[in-house]
Amino acid sequence: MRIEEELKLDFSDVLIRPKRSTLTSRSEVDVDREYTFLHSRHAYRGVPVVAANMDTVGTFEMANALGAHQLAVALHKYYKEDELIRFFKSLAVDAVVFYSMGITRADYDKFRRVKAAAGTHVRYVCVDVANGYTKTFVDFLRKLRQAYPDITLMAGNVVTGEMTEQLILDGADIVKVGIGPGSVCTTRKMAGVGYPQLSAIIECADAAHGLGGLICSDGGCTSPGDIAKAFGGGADFVMLGGMLAGHDECSDDIIERDGKLMRRFYGMSSRTAMEKYAGGVANYRAAEGKEVLIAPRGTVNITVQEILGGLRSACTYVGARKLKELSKRTTFIRVARQLNEVFGKS
Predict the structure, then answer these.
(1) Which is nearest to 55 in space by CA: 72, 71, 75?
(2) pLDDT tens digit sequence for 125-137
(3) In the prediction, which pLDDT does 160 show?
(4) pTM beyond 0.85
(5) By the 8 A CB rule, do 168 and 208 touch?
(6) Given Cys at both, which of 219, 241, 252, 306 links 178, Cβ 3.0 to 4.6 Å?
(7) Where are the alpha helices (DSSP H) in the chain?
(8) Could you list the mean pLDDT of each consecutive 10-residue stretch along the chain, which spans 346 residues?
């Protein structure tokens, strides 16, 4: 046993310090990013915000809505093969939609069939497990990269620099970073394992960028300001679940509660998800997620506008004309309080 004494930080522990700026309007800020991925060599241009591969959020409808704003979506794993093939074949060539998969033999075989049928329409793949530290996961990633050298691979989740480097060396173009920060994740409560998200971003981004790889911050954002902090800390992409939940483009998992219609939102390791897809919680494990009910939030376009407006505002406050410049112009200050909530939370 050992203890690391250095303090680790979350989004709520810091604010971004303003700096002199020559920008006269938020409209001058370019929130697109351009990347050439390390292994696939694909060129990317878009707003590097990704809807999470949760079955309530990572839907075809969400992909179509966010694609209109140049945002990306990681589809959930539970669509049928014929549904995935039809959808990918219908995609515009510049749309960024990740096919999501686990690491079982069945996952691999399903992907091979979809890829064979949809061909080059499947260009982005997200290999998603809760624990990215296992040899099985690394071996699977290496096998997938060898079999499909031309796909852009996002893989995770991890929270430390050395494992970020491992995944990039074994074929990941983007490493997904985050253990426990999600709004419906209970891993930290059930397992006592995790890492404050901002420090995880800073450490993993440093490791990834040294090798020419990228990272995607996954979880912990509750507001546009948190997204700005993630990019300021070095994230190349930011994945959102709870911030996109409850919209019209989410799954039609609607129930009535006390005379009101509510949308269900739950973690993919929750009892709800395991009963839906795995026949219940296996006797060797515990659920590590929860279910919440969200009042319908309307179209996601309004939330996208808030996200992009918040990012542009953050860039304006520090004098960054492009989102690319935000991390270079970010100085975090530690704080004891974020907001004045005398009139309640907003």
Answers:
(1) 75
(2) 999 999 999 999 9
(3) 98
(4) yes
(5) yes
(6) 219
(7) 60-67, 81-90, 105-118, 135-147, 161-169, 187-191, 197-211, 224-232, 271-277, 300-318
(8) 94 97 91 98 97 95 96 97 97 92 97 97 96 97 98 97 98 97 89 95 98 97 97 98 95 83 84 78 78 91 97 97 97 93 81
Q: Pairing relation of β-strands 214-218 and 14-16? A: unpaired
Strands (E), 249-304: 254-257, 260-266, 291-294
* Closest alpha carbon to 237 in 65, 53, 35: 35
Q: Are 222 and 346 in contact (CB under 8 A)?
A: no
Which 3 state secondary structure label does DSSP give 262?
strand
3-state secondary structure of 37: coil
CA-nearest of 96, 49, 44 to 240 is: 49
Question: What's the chain's length in residues?
Answer: 346
Contact call for residues 226 and 239 (beta carbons, < 8 A): no
Residue-wise pLDDT for 92-107, tens only, equals 879 999 999 999 999 9
Q: What are the Cα distances from residue 226, in Å, to 12, 21, 270, 277, 278?
A: 8, 21, 25, 32, 33
| DSSP secondary structure letters along 140-195 | HHHHHHHH-TTSEEEEEEE-SHHHHHHHHHTT-SEEEE-SS-STTB-HHHHH----
Annotated catalytic residue, options 126, 185, 204, 315: 185
Whole-Å CA distances, 237 to 47, 82, 213, 289, 329: 8, 29, 12, 23, 18
Active site residue 250: no
Tell me the C-alpha distance between 146 and 322, whole Å.
35
CB 259 within 8 A of CB 64: no
DSSP state of 55: T
Instruction: Tally Cβ neighbours within 10 Å of residue 225.
Output: 18
The rounded radius of gyration (Å) of the Cα atoms in the chain is 19
Q: Distance (Å, rounded) from C-alpha 141 to C-alpha 147? A: 10
